[in-house]
Specification:
The protein is mainly alpha-helical. It contains 19 helices and 4 strands.
């Protein structure tokens, strides 16, 4: 049966059409959202523990090993349910084995008391860094490239402080000859150094200039990766701290992996998959301003090749939906009617939720705790497949959830079309995890309320110099479009502010969850 005739396939088409269009308008949909970082209560400690354990499991960059953990309570023991984005069974097996070793070390530190804990803690951190060696190696490589760019700038000045900053930065470079663990500890130990404040001053004075060229400041990139490397020390430290405070969780426990369910199939394009047809299905049948929307979309298409981007997405063989780790956990708990510890339906994840996962949690009938989000669209996102289609027992609830999500997706797309607004400035999936200097950031970086495009317009009004001509912005779009075929290192390091908009869905440059001050 043709997709438009089958009710279930039509539901999927009607969901993905506005999502693909919205992604073509810009995958970054707003600034990071964050949850309260208080850790004074049992609940907040438990949430941070689940978040950090998930982080430790995420051992590769790019999203393939993104991990989530949910904590079940039954009358016999606690069960740590683990899920991953990984499609390779061996990857999942590696993560489970690592978590089992990790819990054994944690239990040993809890039972041994203060005696010898310092040595055990250092050994624990070393093992966590070793497990994540692939990620750490790439982060050091990207940091070193950014340091080289900073050095070129610092060499052009005769300021003594700049010379001292250059010397300080060299200790983190690959050329220093330090081990991966030593670089991580160095980044952690130097997080409050005077030179760090000098580096932050460079970010403040260089950001507006570099933004004019659609690029991130290399000083900002260095600061970011120092934060990422320091996190490989801070996160295990927090795991130990919270595990000791919540030692009862490790008395009787099990670690279980969620068996991933098949995702819904990718939608196929047909003769109706073109801009005006998609727009028509997004608008109410009685919409009086349909002509204005068509004119606005045509204008955006002329500037940014929206139709081409939509066609390219549907033609991309890598466009393959999969169920993200946090949704695997959520649906596993709901399907099997499992009980969260203290009825706290929080699911830890190694990185912030994407745009779709965030909407999924917001609209889920079980009302789970909504995770923080980086507000970026990854099109390789899917819901559990329903083999029986509309006859499946889960069809009605899935249909209602997807319709609620699609309503918000359409609203966001139509809002941008009406504004004739270009894409939002790209940002990393994670935060640096150093204390944010929000007093010195532009208002848009502090403002979390309102729609994404209210924040976008606030940003433009704050910095008139950021207004770009359509031709320059079009050139940026073309540049990052070409970079999507480059190697991992080139793609992830590219400083083009919009480079990730067309990159592979699991090729984020930074992939961890952040926001906690060091």
């Amino acid at each position: 049966m043709p997709p438009r005739k089958d009710k279930y396939l039509r539901l999927l088409c009607r969901f993905y059409e506005p999502l693909v269009l919205l992604a073509a308008l810009g995958k970054t949909r707003g600034t990071h959202t964050s949850n309260p970082q208080d850790t004074s209560t049992t609940q907040s400690k438990r949430r941070r523990l689940l978040r950090n354990l998930s982080y430790l499991c995420d051992y590769e960059k790019g999203g393939e090993t993104t991990s989530s953990i949910g904590l079940e309570e039954n009358e016999h023991y606690f069960i740590f349910w683990l899920a991953s984005n990984a499609t390779r069974p061996r990857t999942c097996h590696n993560i489970v084995e690592f978590l089992q070793r990790t819990f054994a070390q944690i239990h040993s530190m809890i039972t041994s008391g203060e005696n010898g804990r310092g040595h055990a803690e250092h050994e624990f951190i070393d093992k966590c860094i070793e497990f994540a060696k692939s990620r750490v190696r790439k982060e050091i490589k990207l940091l070193s490239k950014a340091i080289e760019k900073c050095e070129k700038h610092l060499d052009g000045t005769k300021i003594i402080q700049d010379s001292q900053l250059k010397t300080w930065l060299n200790q983190f470079s690959q050329e220093s000859g330090k081990s991966r663990a030593d670089v991580c500890f160095q980044a952690y130990n130097q997080r409050k150094a005077t030179e760090m404040s000098w580096l932050e001053d460079k970010i403040d004075t260089n950001n507006w200039e570099t933004c004019l060229h659609g690029q991130a400041s290399p000083f900002s990139t260095v600061h970011h990766y120092l934060g990422r490397l320091a996190a490989h020390v801070r996160r295990p430290k927090e795991v130990i701290e919270d595990s000791i405070a919540l030692s009862h969780l490790f008395d009787e426990y099990k670690i279980c992996a969620v068996q991933p369910r098949p995702s819904c199939k990718r939608p196929e394009a047909d003769s109706l998959t073109e801009l005006n047809s998609i727009l028509g299905r997004m608008l109410p049948s009685h919409e009086a301003k349909v002509g204005e929307y068509k004119e606005a979309l045509a204008s955006l298409d002329q500037k940014f090749n929206i139709a081409h981007r939509v066609r390219r997405t549907y033609a991309d063989e890598n466009f393959q939906p999969r169920i993200h780790a946090e949704i695997q956990i959520l649906e596993h708990f709901c399907t099997n009617q499992l009980k969260f510890v203290d009825n706290d339906s929080y699911i830890g994840c190694s990185k912030p939720a994407c745009y779709c996962c965030h909407l999924y949690f917001q609209n889920h009938p079980s009302s789970p705790v909504v995770p923080e989000s980086h507000q970026k669209i990854y099109l390789n996102w899917g819901v559990p497949d329903l083999p029986s289609g509309v006859m499946d027992p889960g069809y009605n609830s899935q249909r209602d959830l997807m319709n609620k999500m699609a309503k918000r997706i359409r609203q966001d797309a139509l809002e941008q079309i009406k504004q004739k607004a270009g894409p939002l400035k790209w940002h990393a999936d994670s935060l640096t995890e150093f204390t944010e200097r929000t007093a010195e950031l532009p208002p848009t970086a502090k403002h979390q309320g309102g729609s994404s495009f209210e924040r976008h317009l606030t940003s433009l009004n704050t910095a008139p110099a950021l207004h770009k001509s359509a031709s320059n912005l079009q050139m940026q779009f073309e540049d990052f479009g070409e970079s999507s075929e480059s190697s991992f290192e080139e793609k992830t390091y590219s400083t083009t502010g919009l480079h990730d908009e067309l990159g592979a869905d699991f090729d984020s440059d930074i992939d961890s969850e952040g926001g906690v001050a060091l």
